Amino acid sequence: MDAVNAQGSANQRCWLIELFAFWEGRVTTGHVSHFFAIGRQQASKELASYRARYPHQLAYSASAKGYVPTQGFKPTLLSGDVGEYLDWVTAQQRPSLAPKAAYQLEAGATALAPRRVSAQLIRPLVKALRQQQRLEVDYLGVTNPSREGRVIVPTRFVKTAQRWHLRAWCEQSQGYRDFVLSRFRGQPELLGRPLAPLPEDTAWHTHITLCIKPDPRLSPAQQAALAADYGMENGELLLQSRAALANYLLLDMHIHTKMLDGNPAAQQLILANIDKIKPWLFGG
Q1: Contact partners, residue 269, CB within 8 Å, separation at least 6
Q2: Which of 143, 206, 237, 265 would staple 212 via disulfide (CB 3.0–4.6 Å)?
């Protein structure tokens, strides 16, 4: 049993080494030592064990002060899905390796549709977030399908039930925006620290209450069934949310705020306090 546990622990450490190397572009004894609560000497042995097991994956870089992926690096223990990395980071309760530049991630539901996001994209995003740097990026928006260059300052990754976003200050829009990770193109360029202190992200720090009720067009029996299904009290469900995330929560629940679905059985739920919440909704 001990041998099985030891093998499992060794596999977990190899997985973590590969996770950091692939998605952050560097892995050090500090990573392994910190996240497995072992000494640096033991951490060095773990890195050596990984390199012996996968000899063509990592190479030491004096400038990076750690091991970096080789040109021939291929994920062996990873799924290759960025959600695997971001989910792991989100789950960590310990402070980041750099306390002043901790990961800032907001977790939501876990069932995500697969979207292709490269490590070459994520590495500069993570670095910019940790070091609070500006980035020049090319972004493919839905309203503007051509590549659009803009300068942003990442503040956190945000997870909804559908996909991961990067929340960032956008210098072009002069406001905080959510950028879908899979819509970035090319490799972002680091530009250094912001030219001025960023304004407060009001929508992120504002907490609101969504009042959800059954669609009143449904029969009393149908409304009662929905109330029981969602555990409503007095026919309503009160959900706390950051104002910046309210749209995503409503979309996840298939609640339309601009117009009701013609079929109340399809609509099922409504936002009862829409007048109060509307300023925080897209297009509100």
Answers
A1: 212, 213, 214, 215, 226, 230, 253, 254, 255
A2: 237
In this prediction, residues 235-247 reach a mean pLDDT of 92
Residue 56, class by beta-carbon neighbours within 10 Å (0-12 exposed, 13-18 middle, 19+ buried)? exposed
Alpha-carbon dihedral sign for residues 247, 252, 253, 259: positive
For 125, the 3-state DSSP assignment is helix
pLDDT of residue 143: 63
Tell me, what amino acid is at 86? L
The secondary element (H helix, E strand) that includes residue 130 is: helix 119-131
Cα(31)–Cα(244) distance, rounded to whole angstroms?
32
Q: Is the pLDDT assigned to residue 86 strictly greater than 50?
A: yes
188, amino acid identity: P
Q: C-alpha distances in angstroms, 155 versus 40, 54, 74?
A: 31, 35, 29
Cα separation of 21 and 28, whole Å?
9
CA pseudo-torsion sign 48, 51, 55, 60: negative
pLDDT of residue 240: 92
Strand partners, 207: 242
Tell me, what DSSP letter sits at residue 111?
Answer: -
Strand partners, 184: 139
Q: How many Cα atoms are found within 13 Å in the side-chain-facing hemisphere of 51? A: 17
Quickly list DSSP for 205-232. Answer: H-EEEEEEEE-TTS-HHHHHHHHHHTT-
Q: Tell whether pTM > 0.85.
A: no
User: What is the chain's length?
Assistant: 284
